[in-house]
Amino acid sequence: MTINYIYISDIIQARRMDPIFFRYGTSQFGQKYKLESIGSCIIDVQSGIGAGKGDQASESNGIVQIRPTNIDKDGFLVFERNIYVPIEANMPSLKKNDVLFNNTNSQELVGKTAIFRGNEPYRFSNHITRIRVNKDKILPEYLWLILNLYQRKSIFYSICTNWNNQSGVGNELLKSIKIPRPILEEQKGIVNIYTKAQEAKQAKDEEAQSLLDNIDPFLLEVLDIASNQQHEKKSIFSTTISNLIGQRLDVSSYKEHFEMLSNKYPNRKLSSLVEIDPAIKFVGFNDDTTISFIPMECIDEKYGEISERREISISQIKGYTKFEEEDLLWAKITPCMQNAKSAIARNLKNGIGCGSTEYYVIRPKIEDLLIDYVYLILRHSEVLKAAQGSFGGSAGQQRVSSQYMKSIVIPFPSKDIQQSIVDVVKERKQRAKQLQIEGLEMLENAKQEIEKLILGL
């Protein structure tokens, strides 16, 4: 049985008496440094204003509104999928060194915190609280570290208020939370530990990204493909009748575009080398047999791999795309196609699987073709760019047609050459992953060192 002793003054200040609130008290952080309330160390705290779809703007005539999705798990701002609001909207704005606290989210994410380093007066949503510190007492970087430390140690998880599947920490509660406050020089030392680790991680991340970015140029070079092809757009074009016999007139298939034409190896139409959406029947399996389920979100677009293998029974697969071990899954719909959502189906439960209806399933139909080689060609940025020009369908639901896929021309070197190309790319990807792992370990070690310093361990 655990007994926690709580001061009456703490109950009065927090205006709470529930045991869960005090389960993860901040007293553990006061062994080395004196605890002071956040409110005594800051000059301003303000939550933002919400913006529904009707209140939003486009990138061309708006300004970024920072939301919880703009803060990653390490407390850094990411601007991959932004929401914009009108520049003239009457909303509080940001300036450099503002601390951004995620006040409302699912319970385990409340409290993740970032620092705004930009110079533009970005806006922020009602789920973000802007904190401006008294720099005579506390560094914004130090407060950022402490708030993220509290988030990892479940402080906010235990004290937040819960309602309608959401949890939150209001401004008054936030100001009442006590944090350890060493002198400014010690704060700088603590911040420097993290800054050095973060800079080392960033260097490794950049090296890893460089390895990945150089895969496409490497393919063009090793296959002797000209990178300066002219991309023509013609309103009138010509093709032979033989190209149309037995096929529908898919205009995109005949437009001029970049092609992976090798000056060194024979070039073949993709349709002569692979089956696209081969007929697949799961024969010899019972309805309760468990197989792999790979929806689109389970494919990592950065490395082009299956990041998660879920499971489903055969009795539940109606309506999904079927595939087998070693099949290539290639996203055909926007924006997944442009984002290179493709992967080879490997390590499938019982050797079979199903997933999104927006996959093309691609399988070699000759022994001299490696699926890993086809995968590299079809993930090339120029191939994806050309495929984007072939989109058909309604806005937001545009897809690459099967006719266009069949018309793609790719170099066809010997199997040994294909394997050597695949091996080089695999080695680069493995090295990139190792660099990222090393960077994450540096950052994690810095977090642990800082935690020990603050706790006096």
Summarize the structure.
The protein is an alpha+beta fold and 457 residues long.
Number of helices: 13
Multimerization state: single chain
Radius of gyration: 28 Å
The residue ranges in which pLDDT falls below 50 over 5 or more consecutive positions are 231-235
Query: Average pLDDT, to the nearest integer?
Result: 89
Q: How much of the residues is beta strand, in percent? A: 15-25%
Model description:
The protein is α+β, with helices and mostly antiparallel strands. 32% of the residues lie in helices and 19% in strands. It contains 13 helices and 24 strands. A four-stranded antiparallel β-sheet has the order 2-9-5-7, with helices on one face. A hairpin with a 2-residue loop joins β10 and β11. α6 packs antiparallel against α13. The longest helix is centred in the C-terminal third of the chain and has 41 residues.
How are the SSEs ordered, and which strands pair?
Blueprint: H1 8-14, H2 19-23, E1 35-37, E2 42-47, E3 62-66, E4 83-86, E5 99-102, E6 104-105, E7 113-115, E8 123-124, E9 128-133, H3 140-152, H4 155-159, E10 161-163, E11 166-168, H5 171-176, E12 178-180, H6 184-213, H7 215-222, H8 241-244, E13 267-269, H9 270-273, E14 274-276, E15 290-294, E16 299-300, E17 305-306, E18 310-313, E19 321-324, E20 328-331, E21 342-344, E22 352-355, E23 359-364, H10 371-378, H11 381-388, H12 402-407, E24 409-411, H13 415-455
Helix pairs in contact: 6-13
